[in-house]
Structures are given as structure tokens and as C-alpha cells.
């Protein structure tokens, strides 16, 4: 499963990458301009320490998310089951699978820091899926706060202000691409 760059190239639409014949390139994520070399190094270094135990760290992220916005809990229903508490939701196999998927998306972003634009189509579609289940664009700021909280809790004093800024920029680029999923729905949907 390591050849992420191959998967990225397969998923990247030629139309998105080139803008089509004779056309200017489609708007892309600001992969080259977004992060300095130092910021990319800080992200990679911190992610290497966190990614070894994605479920445990993802539980920190989602526990914080539900603490900050308990109204998000009803969005997570498996087998038509409404959860009475975040703890009940956080312990289900289906939710643990969701955590793994979220952490894989973060891993993909970290793995493609030099070429985030190759993930743009995937992230746009992910945004559409989130909109379809009732997630509001505004919730992404709470998710971002929860991500930074998780990194701070897991990295302790190693989570510096520079690292926080780098992760904030990366998350902002990911959210920008996901928000396009709201913007690209056909009228009437």
C-alpha cells in the first residue's frame, strides 16, 4: 500500500491536472507556495511520531471534537443506531474504521506535501460525501481545532508554535479542497 504517488497519479484527473487542451490549468491547491521547506519538515517529523498509532491518536481527536461540538454526534449513525454518548460511538467498530480513514487522509496529505494538488479531486469528492451526510462547512473549523489539540496532546512540548502554524496551513489547504465539494454540486441538489 506504500506507492501513494502511484495511487495519487491514478486518481488525479488529467482534466484537473492540465485544465484540458488549450486551456489554462484548473485552479489547484497551492502545494508549492503553501508551505516552506521547514514547515514541511516540521509536519513530517510530527506526523512520523503520531502516525504509528493512528486509532489511539484519532480517538483523542474525535473525543475533543465531540467535547467541542456535541451536536456532531448524531451525524455518526451505524446500522440506524443513535448513540447516547460520544463514548458509546467512539467504541464501535464502525467508528474506529472511520477514525482509520480520517487518519489515512491526513497521512496522504503529509505524504504529498510537495504536490497536494494531486489530492484535490479526491478531497473535493470527500467534501461532497460529507455534505451528503449533513456535515456543515462550519464544522471543519472545529475539526481543525481538534486536530491541533490531538497533535499538542500527543507531542507535548515538541508541538511548537511553528509546528502549529505549519499544520494549520496544511489543514487549511485540505479544507479548501473539500469545500469545493459543496461548490460543485449541480443546481437543484
From TrEMBL:
Instruction: Kindly list the GO molecular function terms attached to this UniProt entry.
Output: heme binding; metal ion binding; oxidoreductase activity; oxygen binding; oxygen carrier activity
Keyword Plastid in record: no
Q: Where is the Globin domain?
A: 34-183
Classification via InterPro entries? Globin, Globin-like_OT, Globin-like_sf, Globin/Proto
From the Swiss-Prot or TrEMBL record, state where the protein is found: Cytoplasm, Cytosol; Mitochondrion matrix
Coiled coil: which residue ranges? Answer: none
In the UniProt record, which is one GO cellular component term? cytosol
Write down the chemical reaction(s) this protein catalyses: Fe(III)-heme b-[protein] + nitric oxide + H2O = Fe(II)-heme b-[protein] + nitrite + 2 H(+)
- Enumerate the residue ranges of region (Disordered): 1-28
Q: Which UniProt keywords apply?
A: Cytoplasm, Heme, Iron, Metal-binding, Mitochondrion, Oxidoreductase, Oxygen transport, Transport
Protein function: Monomeric globin with a bis-histidyl six-coordinate heme-iron atom through which it can bind dioxygen, carbon monoxide and nitric oxide. Could help transport oxygen and increase its availability to the metabolically active neuronal tissues, though its low quantity in tissues as well as its high affinity for dioxygen, which may limit its oxygen-releasing ability, argue against it. The ferrous/deoxygenated form exhibits a nitrite reductase activity and it could produce nitric oxide which in turn inhibits cellular respiration in response to hypoxia.
Give the record's family classification: Belongs to the globin family.
The name under which this protein is listed is: Neuroglobin
Annotated source species: Mycteria americana (Wood stork)
Q: What is the lineage of its organism?
A: Eukaryota, Metazoa, Chordata, Craniata, Vertebrata
